[in-house]
Amino acid sequence: MRRLQNDGRMSATALAAEVGLTVAPCHRRLKELEATGTISGYRAVIDPAAVGLGFEAMVFVTLERVDRPTVDEFEARVDGLVRITSAQRLFGDPDYVLKVVSEDLASYQRFFDDELTRLPGVRRVSSTLVMKNLKPAAGLPL
């Protein structure tokens, strides 16, 4: 699996050769990993700066209440905002950390004012700007 995390386009033939299997058992194992959800998908990793989204911020959100309706509504709205590329619910304060991409500081400021501060149930929003992305797409330590 480690090899596939680094190159999801690797053919079953090439993978089989690297792990010391013939193609048929390697292909069966891949299909089993996909069927069980261990491999949940394949995707291209795109350089944000190459598509004009080189500005990144980490946003910390604290909710007024963490009851089920507030959390559900907040998470549904976050899921619908495409500039939010990662979102984690946390134990403690803050309640959430969000990764937001944007074109530049001005467009981030508009998104902050127009979208982030208007999310349902929000008590406090703060952000910090990313200086350098050291491990943007690190795989699991398998």
Give the helix/strand layout:
Elements (H helix, E strand, L loop, with lengths): L1 H5 L5 H8 L3 H13 L19 E9 L4 H12 L4 E6 L6 E7 L2 H10 L7 E8 L13
Antiparallel strand pairs: 1-3, 1-4, 2-3
Provide structural commentary:
By secondary structure, this protein is of the alpha+beta class. It has two domains: 2-35, no CATH class; 48-129, 2-Layer Sandwich (Alpha-Beta Plaits), CATH 3.30.70.920. The chain has helices spanning 2-6, 12-19, 23-35, 68-79, 105-114, and strands spanning 55-63, 84-89, 96-102, 122-129. The protein has a four-stranded antiparallel beta sheet with strand order 2-3-1-4. Helix 2 (12-19) packs across helix 3. The longest helix has 13 residues, at 23-35. It starts with a helix and ends in a 13-residue tail after the last strand. 11% of the residues are buried.
- Strand proportion, as a percent range, falls in 15-25%
- Name the helicity range: 25-40%
Structural class: alpha+beta
**On the 0-100 scale, what is the average pLDDT?**
92
Briefly, what CATH class of the largest domain? Alpha Beta
Radius of gyration: 19 Å
Low-confidence stretches: none
Main beta sheet strand tally, sense and closure: 4 strands, antiparallel
Approximate shape: elongated
* Tally of DSSP helical segments: 5
Number of DSSP-assigned strands: 4
Order of helices and strands: HHHEHEEHE
Strand order of the largest sheet: 2-3-1-4
In CATH, what is the homologous superfamily of the largest domain? Lrp/AsnC effector binding domain/regulation of amino acid metabolism (RAM) domain
CATH fold descriptor of the largest domain:
Alpha-Beta Plaits
